[in-house]
Amino acid sequence: MTKIILIVFLSVMTCTYSEARDEGEDPVLPPLHLNCTQSLTEFLLLRQETHLNRMVSAEEATTKLLKQTLETLVQVRETLNEVNAKMGGHIDTKPDGAVCQPPFTRVGERCLLLALQEQHTWASARQFCAGYGADLAHFSEANAFAALLDYVNTINFQKKNINVWVGGTDEAVEDTWLWVTGELMPRGPPFWGTYDGYALQPNAGTSQNCAVLWKADYYYMHDLPCTHKCAPLCQK
Question: What distance in Å separates the CA atoms of residue 91 and residue 106, rounded to the nearest whole number?
């Protein structure tokens, strides 16, 4: 702005002095000549037009940049969705219309989460699942159990020697095995395994009151002390 004022002042003085010399008058504050005024007006209009053109160009560049950024973000979102789906973290819908939100995965009619990296007592495992609005897994028929075993073996594809807690216990009444829902647990094959190939589980009496999927027995159920550290299998 200071430069514009200076240019205007110098232009005015130049035009004034020039006219004064031509007419032989005193050059101190003579009236402005029409041509000088017109030249200054045209100069200012030209400068304003240039400024506006620059603003328009900058706005167009900004709009183009925002459009390119939006397109890039859309591509990133689509790529992340594809990667998430391949990793099993996509959102699944259960048959009843309920949604399995990550990190849960739909298995049959249930949403399951096996946290292999976690090691908890049975009670602590329930608290871990509760943090996700869930509880330890339970099942009542062979097909659901088979689907659960398939899920566990898929997650533990590295075949780590990790046992997995499920939501069964006989702590309240010895040898009356109940799910955390209060329902009776199924007994015998194909749910419970055997110890050394002959001793049918559960068989340890009052010393082992919590149900676990036992890795050494192909993840069939065994009874263990509830203070053991195992991975929680959560269900919604």
Answer: 9
**Whether 149 contacts 166, CB under 8 Å:** no
Spatial separation of the C-alpha atoms in residues 174 and 84, rounded to whole Å: 45
DSSP annotation of 183: P
For residues 233 and 141, what is the distance between their CA atoms, to the nearest angstrom? 17
Say what the pLDDT of residue 205 is: 84
Candidate CATH numbers 3.10.100.10, 3.90.1110.10, 3.10.450.50, 3.40.50.970; the one for domain 92-235? 3.10.100.10
- pTM reported for the whole predicted model: 0.60
Residue 183, both tokens: 């329902």
Question: How far apart (Å, rounded) are the C-alpha atoms in residues 185 and 168?
Answer: 7
pLDDT tens string 193-208? 998 777 899 987 899 9
